[in-house]
Amino acid sequence: MKKILLFTTILAAILFSGCAKKTDKTAVAVFVPGIIDDSPTYNMLAQGIKAAVEEKNQTLSDESKIDLFVMEAGTNQAEWGPKITALCAEQKYDVIISSNPSLPDLVEPILKQFPAQKFILLDATKEGNQNIHTVCYNQYEQSYITGYIGGLMSKSHKLALIAAQEYPVMNNIIYPYFEKGAQAAEGSSTVEFRIVGNWYDATKGAELADAVAKIGVDVILPICGGASQGVITSAINNGIYITWFDDNGFSKAPGTIISSSVMEQKKMSYNVTKEFLEGKTPWGTAKMVGIKEGFVDFVQDDPLYIQTVPADVREKMKSLLDDIRSGKTEIK
User: Fold this and answer.
1) How many CA atoms lie within 13 A of 320 on its CB side?
2) C-alpha–C-alpha distance, residues 69 and 269, integer Å
3) Phi (first) and psi of residue 270, to 5 degrees
4) What is the mean pLDDT of residues 61-89?
5) What is the arithmetic mean of pLDDT over 229-252?
6) How far apart are CA 192 and CA 210, in angstroms?
7) What is the pLDDT of residue 297?
8) What is the DSSP string of 35-72?
């Protein structure tokens, strides 16, 4: 029934889209591939876009104020494509802004049906399509520094990465550079790679974490959305460590989470929205930002980090980050 209703909504939008008239008033849509309250990353996305729109609206008359619409698409990835299609079919949004590595592959086929639609996609990479601008965070650096502290903290020299799914950035950057970082810290380190199959199944996340704990893994990096909560629960029960990605996660499990590599999603989403509203979006280009640019960082001042991680390890992390910022060390 749910699928029938979704299909009916999309079909109706497409059938009546020919009647839709674009006005001179600018409209921005935020496509959230998840649930805002469950994801700091998507919360930051929405906050940054909203701040840029509100700032611009202060300079406009009531009749010209920018319309902002936020769609929370939920965690079922099979529904993302149809819901993006429905947004495009309305033919009212000058740009759709979103964030997820899998979105360029979802969006490109939709653009064949709606060739005028523009997309700005964060945490993603796609170059050469004049309807798309992407900005990705330097996940070579982010993965490497996360692996590095994992390698320093692991006693068994066995780590694991539990991912929601496989996609190019995961397979080609996050996983191999997490492993490179761990091996730079301790040459004998190995990384187990496990897939949940979706972004929400906490039970499956816990099962995978339990399984790798049984073979001696004592540090896990979860990148699996809501399923990460299951990984955390397992880590607490098994007395092993978690390294965290994308935001400050220390409070989620004090004493269990040993690191937080963060990306400045709110600042970036504000920047790209402001750039669009000023007519300066470099369509067809892919931009990467990292530690030097201030959009990727490693939390060093959280009291829980200081309490959990020994001073000598913290000093090694500080040295690595200083070297990356200064250009002395380049992660590639």
Assistant:
1) 22
2) 15
3) -65, -45
4) 95
5) 96
6) 13
7) 95
8) -GGG-HHHHHHHHHHHHHHHHHHTTS-GGGPPEEEEEE
Are 308 and 255 within 8 A, CB to CB? yes
pLDDT, tens digit (0-9, with 9 covering 90-100), for 219-234:
999 999 889 999 999 9
> Which two tokens mark 301?
């001042």
Residue 75 — very low, low, confident or very high, per pLDDT cuts 50/70/90? confident
19: CB partners within 8 A, 6+ apart: none
The model's pTM is 0.84
Reported confidence tier of residue 15, pLDDT bands at 50, 70, 90: very low
Q: How far apart are CA 206 and CA 302, in angstroms?
A: 26
* Nearest 10 degrees: Cα torsion 255, 144, 159, 182: -100
Q: Which amino acid is at 135?
A: V
For residue 196, what are the CA distances in angstroms to 99, 209, 221, 258? 20, 10, 13, 22
Terminus-to-terminus CA distance in the chain, angstroms? 48
Q: Looking at 34-38, 158-162, 251-255, which range is the least confident one?
A: 34-38
Q: Kindly report the number of other CB atoms within 10 A of residue 42's CB atom.
A: 26
Query: How far are the Cα atoms of 121, 124, 216, 224, 281 from residue 31, in angstroms, in the given order?
Result: 10, 14, 40, 19, 18
182 in Cβ contact with 221 (< 8 Å): no
Q: From CA 167, how far away is CA 105, in angstroms rounded? A: 10
Tokens standing for 154?
């692991």
The C-alpha atoms of residue 227 and residue 34 are separated, in whole angstroms, by 12
Closest CA to 119 of 82, 84, 78, 156: 84
The sheet carrying 257-263 orders its strands as 190-195, 158-163, 219-223, 241-246, 257-263, 296-298
CB 82 within 8 A of CB 6: yes
Question: Which residues contact residue 308 at a Cβ distance below 8 angstroms, ignoring those fewer than 6 apart?
Answer: 250, 254, 255, 257, 258
- pLDDT at residue 16, rounded to an integer: 44
